[in-house]
Amino acid sequence: MKSYRETQQSPAKHMPSIVLVGLLHLLVGYALVTGLARKVVEVIKAPIETKIIEEIKKPLEDTPPPPPPKLAAPPPPFIPPPEVNIQVPVQAQQAPTITTTTTKPPPGPAPRYVDAPPAPPAPPGPVVRKNVKPIGDIVKPVFPRKAIRDGLQSGNVIAHLVIRPDGSVSEVRIIRAKPPRVFDTEVVRALSQWRFAPEPVGFIGEVELVFKLED
Hints:
There is one protein chain. By secondary structure, the protein is α+β, with helices and mostly antiparallel strands. The chain has 5 helices and 4 strands; from the N terminus they run H-H-H-E-H-E-E-H-E. The chain has helices spanning 4-8, 15-34, 36-45, 145-149, 184-191, and strands at residues 128-130, 154-163, 169-178, 203-212.
């Protein structure tokens, strides 16, 4: 195997480079002989002129502004022609007259009036016993103090007593009083406590009370 030095000292490897350098020297020598190199140097030394070309501006013409666009007028609104109703006279037809004739039926027999039966008599009211006498202790009404203050000296009251079958009083009714409404309260209080002899059926008794203020 060859060393690096031996390979560098080999003339065969540097042969292309040597040939290229020789050709370059020949070319330079030819240029010097023919004056080509001098012309190249003169061209390089010549000053380079630079020109600034200004842009040619076109003069602005005084042109008037364009006129505004013409707006077409809107068409007039469509108005339909008025409708004219022509009335055709119509001949009125006369309605036929209808006459209705009603015949009266022949008179019938005269109605017979029958007398209504008499109303039944009202049931008799309860029999009122007058001047009935109670039994046991009798509660007597008292002369009212208001009547004394009003200056009354006497009075009279007629009352009906509704008596039960057991003899007790269920109701006291003032029939007549003189003067009115002076002794009513005291009469009802006293007579409601009266007792009568029992009977199979109750009855109504009448009592007359006389009030007299004694000195």
